[in-house]
Amino acid sequence: MGEPTNTGRVEGIDQARKRSYTALSDARCRHILSALDRDGPMSTETLAVTVSADERDVAVDAVSDADVESVLIELYHTCLPRLEAAGLVSRDEDGTVRARLDGHEAVPDVRAFLETDRRHAAASLAHLAVPERRAALVVLAGRNEPLDLSTLVAEMRRLDDFDSGVDSGDSLQVALHHVHLPRLEAAGFVRYDSDANVIEPRIQVADELAGETE
């Protein structure tokens, strides 16, 4: 008895799914798809500018030529060929790039991947609305070495605009230890050794953040 007639089609979908998930595992590829899904088709050059701005969370006129050139090279040589092979984008003869997210047979929930990125970004930004976490990140900005908790508290209390609403450094230290630093660690901003009371920055905070709080 021969193999089912749909075997070749199933294997083809499996290969397409593998190519799609490989592309979607790359953060820059997801930025490309998000930009195209949000703004519509655009030239490769415009896409490079848009992706550069999105990755840095700045306006398009704030990205440098060097940053755009770096992204453009990767778009041409890596990202767009990978996304095309996965059937997630297409390129017109004039170089216009288009997203192909609707009706994708191998990965019908492509937008779910992109929405996960957006939710993670929103959750990360929510931490900056909490004065204690924002001030802690300001103190840690630009540091490459671990910092002990008592030093972090002392430097936070020296910030001009910081008001945690607690009366003492001890109360602030307790709140950081039990609430704020574990939350920042879960979000990927820091690594906190709660036994040694040592904080190690994992994500560098933008200089603008420090400037707004000092």
Quick overview:
With 214 residues, the chain is mainly alpha-helical.
Rg value: 23 Å
Strand-and-helix sequence, N→C? HHEHHEEHHEHHEEH
Secondary structure: number of strands = 6
How many domains, in number, for the residues?
A: 2
Approximately how much beta-strand content do the residues carry? 5-15%
Mean pLDDT: 82
- Helical fraction equals 55-70%
Main sheet? 3 strands, antiparallel
CATH topology of the largest domain: Arc Repressor Mutant, subunit A
Q: Classify the secondary structure makeup into a structural class.
A: mainly alpha
- Please mark out the parts with pLDDT under 50 across 5 or more consecutive residues, or reply none: 205-214
Q: List the total number of helices.
A: 9
Q: What overall geometry do the principal axes of the alpha carbons give?
A: elongated
> Cα distance, first to last residue?
76 Å
Identify the CATH architecture of the largest domain. Orthogonal Bundle
What order do the strands of the largest sheet run in, or round the barrel if closed?
1-3-2
